[in-house]
Predict the structure.
Amino acid sequence: MNRRSFIMTGAGALAVSGLAPLALGATKSKDAAKAPAAPKAIQRFGDGRDWYFEKRFGMFVHWGLYSIPGWHEQHQWRARVPRAEFVKLAAQWNPALFNPEVWLDLLQAAGMKYICLTTKHHDGFCLWDTKQTRFNTMNTPYGKDIVKQLADACHKRGVPLCLYYSIADWNQPNYPNEGRHHELPPQAGDAPDWNKYLDFLRAQVRELCTNYGEIHGFWWDMNVPKHKDPSINAMIRQLQPKAVINNRGFDEGDFGTPERDYEKDEANGFDRLTEACQSVGVESWGFRRDEDYYTDRHLERSIDRYLARDGNYLLNVGPQPDGVIPEVSAGILRRIGQWYGSVKESLEGVQPASHLTGNRNVMLTRRERTLYVHMNKDMLGDGVKLKPFNVLPKSAVLLNTGKPVDCVVNLTPADHLEQKVYLRLMHLPANEMANTVLVAKLEFDRPLEELARAGTGAEKVSEFQK
């Protein structure tokens, strides 16, 4: 029998019938019993912070005075604006169209489950009624507490609220601005005193953790002096026991924060809780008037790559000075929401499973005997080979469309040296849906570990089948 006959009448015929065996003409090697090693599961906290394991996708919001010039959230530093000039923007702060309900509508349309707001960015302008400085939203034409409005809306809807706080402060005179990265050069009126600044910081953190009801997270940024003081996070935990804390503050916190895909990590999983962050805009996290935007494909790939590995993801938008999220940004989130809604069963309540295949061009997640194939890299063709799987699923569906996926188990020319048959997904809409991430759902009637272990053996095509 020639090879063409084998493909059509051997494994090919079994694929059509749905009865592909575990091995065709198999002989088992001593390695057949070895199962691929799964990534170590990240331990839950065992307390109120465990909400973070259930709500993996969130909205980041960078908003402040920097939205008025509309160039960058670090406008004061990057454009070399003197402090005395930048503070004049407070006289223009009047976001009359700010409506937290509209923000949360968009959050839910995108499939997001929590929100993180920049309460104070590096410029030192505060979006709440702080008693520690007059440089805040209450002393502007707007005169309203932004944090309170958002907190009230979040509590009403049951959306967890996390608060961002910059340690670097370009306005507070006691902060030691020394011209280091993300710092101003010394300014007129400075009175650098790190201990006094920490007293100011603690008082502000206490305000945020006591005046706005239940808070679910605290997101530190820019600890330029690299100061260590676990007592500050301990205070947050005492006041807000459900709050998860990131690793950019005064100790290692609860989770890591890779940013903007700078960390090209190809590992199958993480060794600690991780929340990636990215913005829809290429240049800025705050509102930028002539922004360039990432493609839907880039963002969906990034989101999928982290969620498929049991990580969290914050996707950022920068509202306009009037409080409205730009329509371009909103459109991106809505389109991502359409994609996310179609594939979310492969990202929520699942386990990372990429270790089950040697194909590094895809990622896998699983739920019991269901395997999800995430095609979150450039697809080189319209098929995917899932070594070492050599059994047909009982069903195969493309989650993006709900349509069946063609599957076969057969020998391909590329595997002629091994003479092994493998499961292949065929005729995928790689061209037609090139601007998104395809996810296939495969349901098997045997444990996935058993299938992956069996496929690592020396299952070969017999001489008869050739």
About this structure: The domain at 48-344 is CATH 3.20.20.80 (TIM Barrel). Residues 1-33, 457-466 have pLDDT under 50 and may be disordered.
